[in-house]
Design brief:
Chains A, B: Keywords: Amino-acid biosynthesis, ATP-binding, Cytoplasm, Kinase, Nucleotide-binding, Threonine biosynthesis, Transferase. The structure is a homodimer of 307-residue chains. In chain A, 38% of the residues lie in helices and 28% in strands. The first copy, chain A, is α+β, with helices and mostly antiparallel strands and 307 residues long. In chain A, strands 1, 2, 3, 4, 5, 6 and 12 form a 7-stranded mixed beta sheet that branches. In chain A, α1 runs antiparallel to α3 and α6 packs antiparallel against α7. The mean pLDDT of chain A is 96. Chains A and B meet through β5, β6, β8, α6 and α7 of A and β5, β6, β8, α6 and α7 of B.
Chain lengths: 307, 307
């Protein structure tokens, strides 16, 4: 195989209680990338559609992630990358992760799969480091593994696949305001009370158990975040209203996607997810902030070949 | 049924990463209680064998827990309780929880099971409150439900049963030193770093996932506690040595049982649990502290009828 076209899913990191450890992949929104082998060493980003992003390898997350893989691979040639960037950077649904994960996954396919998913996550984390100064894995892990993932530990990196109940749907609304990931990290407190920590790890345990048991009600009860959401939600106009509206029409839970400004809700069944979308739209329609909105099944495959 | 004799299992609370939320029940060690219906109102503790504990209802955990049930039940009679107390109070393996859980479970049977397991946990928590000033549920929940339990939330109380891999064995050593639960809570810090919180909820998620997946290696990797163990272990002479010895002979993980001083290890298979026991004995033999030691399968039933 000399060329491959892949779908690179958007992802929701944190998933309320799981700050820095949990993430899930979406089906209905993602980038498309075409990656081809070249005789020339190194990585050339030849075309980016949809967004104004740097073509220079060292300044593009897919270039940096790809170079991390290329250096380890022993491959003497290089790659060209074309990106159809459908996820808006800064939206909080893993835009940089999709490009990073897609690049390394596609290259791995073209090289005959020398690397494991865990190694691909490590390469893709280099792209995340470029994007936000922190080599976090909570978006790239679900982008590569698909479904829900738990980053149990960073040192050593330990990524656990968690099963996805089949009727689980996500609704994600992206109000068009800008929040930088690095800014939204800075406002977090470096200390938390032990009491809130206990609540949080109780909820993480509950969410993981709910996903294994297909217990939608338990999933809903566990989608709480008493640590990060109360702080970060201040940066998102209308957050409380969106959340109460979504919960009012039957969402299992609702929270900030990654570092925001996107807000996600999880629902049992597409009909509920659709009602949640309508309720969210109405809030931002009233406030007068433009938005994108997505309704999506959970993507259980991660990055996948489309051509 | 007018009389019932029950086995009331010892329990391990916290299980390393799951401070205040996780617990498991043991098979090889527990109290035995005989509970019988009486025409006389109230609860009379008629006999306690094995330990010098108060017979007065209001001062005995089984009396207090039983009274909580009795008041809600509408039953016009009362109960007599005899306790064969095989778990040493203050050992850190849920001595008070066993008596509290056993009493309310037995009474519920005698009354024709009007109460759910969750309600029984709430009654038994009143016994815990008497014992340690805190109405914690992380011992009484596994004592009543059996297996591993997660107390996801206290308000409202939410107890989740977690499956138990069949080859999982616990080794518990109880060095004969006294630590009061209330003292071992006081030395904990009320704040933790967000960073340690993230590690902890990553590990709780990993442990729950490992238990569902029967992934012993993941269970082992997740049995870490960077928050409570470093502080509480100072109160337990030989802790680091016991832990390193247990890990050296193949334990999946090792930590403080509840608030100590007992130390537990989990192993895959009885043979490893036996080797772990030998390694632990050797440490306390050398230090010269007397000890009890137990090797036990995980008890998946909780309190059970034995006559």
């Amino acid at each position: 195989m000399e060329e491959i076209k892949v779908f690179c899913p958007a992802t929701i990191a944190n998933v309320s209680c799981g700050f820095d450890v949990l993430g899930l992949a979406l089906d209905a929104v993602g980038d498309e990338m075409t990656v081809r082998k070249t005789a020339k060493k190194g990585i050339a980003i030849t075309k980016i559609m949809g967004q104004d992003l740097p073509l220079e390898t060292a300044k593009n997350v897919s270039g940096v992630a790809g170079m991390a893989l290329l250096e380890k691979s022993g491959y003497q040639g290089g790659f060209e990358i074309e990106i159809d960037k459908k996820i808006k950077p800064g939206s909080g649904i893993g835009s940089s992760a999709a490009s990073s994960a897609g690049a390394v996954w596609a290259m791995n396919e073209l090289l005959g799969k020398p690397f494991s998913n865990l190694e691909l996550v490590k390469f893709a984390m280099q792209g995340e480091k470029l994007a936000s100064d922190v080599a976090h894995a909570d978006n790239v892990a679900p982008a590569i593994y698909g479904g829900f993932t738990l980053v149990r530990s960073y040192d050593p990196l330990d990524v656990i696949s968690i099963p996805t109940p089949s009727e689980l749907f996500a609704t994600v609304i992206h109000p068009q305001i800008e929040i930088k990931t690095s800014d939204s990290r800075k406002i977090l407190k470096t200390n938390i009370t032990l009491e809130k920590g206990i609540q949080q790890w109780g909820n993480v345990g509950g969410l993981i158990a709910g996903l294994f048991k297909n217990d939608y009600d338990l999933i809903g009860r566990s989608l709480e975040d008493h640590i990060v959401e109360p702080i970060r939600s201040i940066l998102i106009p209308g957050f409380d209203h969106v959340k109460s509206s979504a919960m009012g029409v039957g969402a299992l839970g609702c929270g900030i996607s990654g570092s925001g400004p996107s807000i996600f809700a999880l629902s049992k069944g597409e009909n509920v997810a659709q009602r949640v979308a309508e309720s969210m739209k109405e809030v931002y329609g009233t406030i007068g902030i433009p938005f994108d909105i997505h309704i999506s099944k959970i993507n259980t495959e991660g990055v996948k070949r489309i051509a």
